[in-house]
Amino acid sequence: MLALAQTGVGHLITDYGHDELIIVHVPLALVVFGVTLSLSSYAITVLRGATHER
Fold first, then answer.
1. DSSP notation for the chain
2. Containing domain of residue 39, as a range?
């Protein structure tokens, strides 16, 4: 859902010239990137734990 919002805001900036939305676009990108890293790290930790229990 956040990635969809990020894409929509990006298109508003580039296609329609709403440069004032950059103030929303950049922090939203950082949040999306941070959540992606956190979930990936968690998934790796869970998978490694499941592998070691066998």
1. -HHHHHHHHHHHHHHH--GGGHHHHHHHHHHHHHHHHHHHHHHHHHHHHHHHH-
2. 2-53
Output the six-digit token pair for 36: 């992606």
Buried b (16+ CB within 10 A) or exposed e, 13-26: beeeeeeebeeebe
- pLDDT at 50 > cutoff 90: no
Task: Fill in the amino acid letter for 54.
Answer: R
Residue where the block lists tokens 């950049």: 26
Quote the pTM value: 0.79
Q: Which amino acid belongs to residue 18? A: H
- Please count the structural domains in the chain: 1
